[in-house]
């Protein structure tokens, strides 16, 4: 543990469950790195991700974005390719991009969008895009003919959330420089999306635990019953 982490930890009561505002205040106070740290939300859900009917996955546009410049790659042809370029996608193509990724191990992008008719091509990249979380998916809105809307939403701050093998969702809610008010707005929108995404097959308590942390700082526990306040 570094000196800053140890000092920051002293500000937090490990046994306490804070309101979202209190937790974000503490997270900002403990974000002592010299760069603009990302503030992250971690939610443990009462689901068993081994079962298909208990998967939690989706996407939501944060009202204040993520604070990160997102590079978008779009697999599309013809008019849809033109729409993607006009919407601000950094990379647009078809088989040429497939070849570049396969031959050059190229990953200079953050999100991949594809039109449904291109999924036959994109599917051949499943083994390389899948492990990196870059595979387009209809549930996250990245497989669509409305590429203009998809690119614009991603640029505006759309984030994807997905429960991992340990039943936890990890997702950014912004940057330290946002301040408490903007972070609180993003936090609330994300939590509302997670609550709406509750699988019908889930039994018992759905939101098990919630915490927020900065890139280099300690986690701060949030009271699960107060996340939407």
From TrEMBL:
Gene3D superfamilies: 3.30.190.20, 3.40.50.790. One of its GO terms (cellular component) is ribosome. InterPro entries: Ribosom_uL1_bac-type, Ribosomal_uL1, Ribosomal_uL1-like, Ribosomal_uL1/biogenesis, Ribosomal_uL1_3-a/b-sand, Ribosomal_uL1_CS. Coiled coil: none annotated. SUPFAM superfamilies: Ribosomal protein L1 (SSF56808). Keywords: Repressor, Ribonucleoprotein, Ribosomal protein, RNA-binding, rRNA-binding, Translation regulation, tRNA-binding. Binds directly to 23S rRNA. The L1 stalk is quite mobile in the ribosome, and is involved in E site tRNA release. Part of the 50S ribosomal subunit. PANTHER family: 54S RIBOSOMAL PROTEIN L1, MITOCHONDRIAL, LARGE RIBOSOMAL SUBUNIT PROTEIN UL1M. Belongs to the universal ribosomal protein uL1 family. NCBIfam families: rplA_bact (TIGR01169). This is Large ribosomal subunit protein uL1. It comes from Clostridium algidicarnis. The lineage of its organism: Bacteria, Bacillati, Bacillota, Clostridia, Eubacteriales. The gene is rplA.
